[in-house]
Amino acid sequence: MIIVHHLENSRSQRILWLLEELDVSYELRVYKRQGSLLAPPELRKIHPLGKAPVIQDGDRTVAESGAIIDYLVTTYGGGRLVPPEGTAEKLSYTYWMYYAEGSAMTPLLLKLVFSMLPGRSSFLVKPLVRMIADKTSRSFIDPQIRLHMGFWEDSLSRSPWFAGEQFSAADIQMSFPLEAATSRAAAGPKTPFVAAFLDRIHSRPAYRRALERGGAYAYAE
Questions:
Q1: Are 174 and 138 in contact (CB under 8 A)?
Q2: Which of 43, 103, 125, 140 is 20 to 30 A from 132 (CA-CA)?
């Protein structure tokens, strides 16, 4: 049976969702974040980097969300959740799978880091650090997030799913960037297609089952 090493309130929630969509049985091992919000050190016993998600399937250990998703749909999908080879939809699928953990995550990670800096600074320099962090967010990070949200809005205005008319694993991979971005800049009148996409995925039975198993996940609000 597949073992999923899942960090609470993290991107690894997508792996649980995919397994529920594929109706594949799995054992879940949940790890709690430390006070620093980092993953606990025991995850390094599973993978040298100590990151989640990681899955174990027999003698195979697979890390990184994109690699795990590719492994699962290839091994257990039976052609499901992936567009046919040689189609425009498959090319779009491949693009979004890579983009989700590449270009899309950079401004979101910067937003998180700069939001945490003042709280981790000493009393004397905290006001200065807060001023620098706020200015950086307003002048650089927030515009980048809005740029990406506009990109998603345009894509979803042309088809209900990222790889075309059919739901695919690319939508699972893309779910976290959209959820994280909208938790900081709520999807509303300016991004109705992004908001509708989130409503669609949040109402999927497999998504709800994954939430029940995985526990707290702030981005599903």
A1: no
A2: 103
